[in-house]
Specification:
- This is Transcriptional regulator, AraC family.
- GO terms for molecular function: DNA binding.
- Keywords: DNA-binding.
- It holds the Pfam family AraC_binding_2.
- InterPro entries: AraC-bd_2, HTH-like.
- The protein is α+β, with helices and mostly antiparallel strands.
- The protein has a single domain, classed as Jelly Rolls.
- It has helices at about 5-20, 120-130, 150-170, 175-195, 210-220; strands at about 20-25, 35-40, 45-50, 55-60, 65-75, 75-80, 85, 90-95, 100-105, 110-115.
- It has a 5-stranded antiparallel sheet with strand order 1-4-9-6-7.
- Strand 6 and strand 7 (about 85) form a beta hairpin.
- Helix 2 crosses helix 4.
- The termini are far apart.
């Protein structure tokens, strides 16, 4: 069997980065190990990770982290209530903590992820759209569409990986952290909630005050008449 110490150590390491997670190793008679590189930019955690064998990953309840995952090498199979999909190299997927998910990774699968806490996304949503976010915030549980958005994420991932290498070599410029964080969060939110161009999230129903609705009803019924002030 896989030594329990190895599995516990890797699972604990993964949990500190991605939140509560359960790992299952495919090879019971081989030691499980992981190659992991992390970097922090603002409130974002950037992670490059690969395991030495095939593994199955199941995020656990009470998880508070959203994960923007891009496959760098190998393949990753994702199973959600909406079905199963294969993620080839270059594909990006946004995982929501409230949606049950199972990931099955090939032995050569390497992933780059941006980990974002729920509170940070909620605050960014309020700043972007000027009203409270839906509860819970959930993203499309499928790879980012290949309609320009996928290419945009690939470019952004390339930049973030380059920034990670620069910081590893001691060349970080902390003054740009806030700007990088805003670019990532704005891209994430606009891709999900403004794709139809109306800047309102799907499933969100705006509620107008009574006096505004009365004013609109009055104007609609008197559009062919001159307005007078009394």
């Amino acid at each position: 069997m896989t030594p329990s110490g190895d599995l516990d150590r890797i699972q604990s390491l993964s949990g500190r980065v991605f939140g509560p997670t359960r790992l299952r190793a495919a090879e019971n008679d081989a030691a499980l190990d992981a190659r992991i590189d992390t970097c922090t930019i603002g409130h974002l955690t950037l992670v490059t990770i690969a395991y030495n064998q095939a593994v199955q990953i199941e995020p656990q309840p009470n998880k508070d982290e959203f994960v923007i995952q891009t496959v760098l090498a190998g393949t990753c199979r994702v199973e959600t209530p909406r079905g199963a999909t294969e993620m080839p190299p270059g594909a990006t997927f946004v995982f929501s903590p409230t949606v049950p998910t199972t990931l099955s990774l090939d032995p050569g699968c390497e992933r780059f992820s941006v980990v974002v806490r729920r509170q940070l996304i909620e605050e960014a949503f309020r700043q972007q759209f000027s009203f409270d976010p839906p509860a819970p915030i959930e993203f499309d549980m499928q790879p980012v569409a290949n309609d320009g958005r996928a290419e945009r994420w690939q470019a952004l991932v390339s930049y973030l990986r380059a920034e990670t290498r620069v910081r590893r070599e001691g060349g970080a410029v902390q003054a740009v952290d806030g700007s990088i964080e805003r670019i990532v969060l704005s891209t994430l939110l606009l891709d999900r909630f403004a794709a139809d161009g109306n800047m309102l999230p799907r499933r969100f129903e705006a509620v107008l005050p009574d006096y505004v609705r009365c004013a609109i009803a009055y104007l609609r019924s008197h559009l062919d008449q001159p307005l007078t002030l009394e």
